[in-house]
Design a protein that fits this description.
alpha+beta; 3-stranded antiparallel sheet
Length: 81
Amino acid sequence: MCSKAVVKFTTSIYDMDALQKAASDYKSICDIEVSMPDSESADSSEQQYMICTLSNSRADMQLTAKEFCNYVIEQMNVRRT
């Protein structure tokens, strides 16, 4: 079983508020660190992404990562209505 998953969200589609809200809501399921690549150390393609690192999941990590992505999409839709 995988103990860690990394998911990238493009900044042109997703916003940090939705990611942070989703990460907060998921805190009873797994640990999630939300970050942006450092503009000085990352290349220009990496700067277009926010990165979520999931760990210590209470369920299967791959399933948790997929469900988290779906939840982020739901949070984006809620923000638009």
